[in-house]
Amino acid sequence: MSLREARLKESAISDDDTSPTVEKMKDFEARAEAAYAAMYEARSYEEKDFKDDACSFLARAAEIADALGRDADAARLRARTDQIMSVYNSQFRYIGR
After folding, report:
1. Which of 8, 27, 45, 85 could form a disulfide with 12 if both were Cys (CB 3.0 to 4.6 A apart)?
2. 4 located within any domain
3. Structural domain contains residue 68
4. CA triple 4-6-8, angle to 5 deg
């Protein structure tokens, strides 16, 4: 998935189909990873947007995992969110030094 496709792809869940499935969980996870990868290619003013996209997609994937009773997947997805936040804070975030 390209940099722009990660931002422009339609939501995996439409208004008329809100039932959680493993496929939707995996789709959100893939979109999160695409947004994370795009963060490295983005201009400095776009990096936070891609980080936010990645974290939002992972949060949605974790919600779906919870709904499906996939506790290990939910924990893994939340850990990945924490890792992305840590990378962003250490490599991308400007703290005025």
Report:
1. 27
2. no
3. yes
4. 65
User: 54 lies in which domain range?
Assistant: 20-91
The whole model's pTM is what? 0.81
DSSP state of 96: -
Write out the DSSP string of 6-33: HHHPPPSS-TT-----HHHHHHHHHHHH
Q: Does some domain include residue 50?
A: yes
Confidence of residue 76 (pLDDT cuts 50, 70, 90): very high
Q: Per 3-state DSSP, what percentage of the chain is helix, strand, and coil (rounded to 5)?
A: 70, 0, 30
Domain-embedded: residue 13: no
The rounded mean pLDDT for the chain is 86
Number of domains in the chain: 1
pLDDT single digits (tens) 20-47: 999 999 999 999 999 999 999 999 899 9
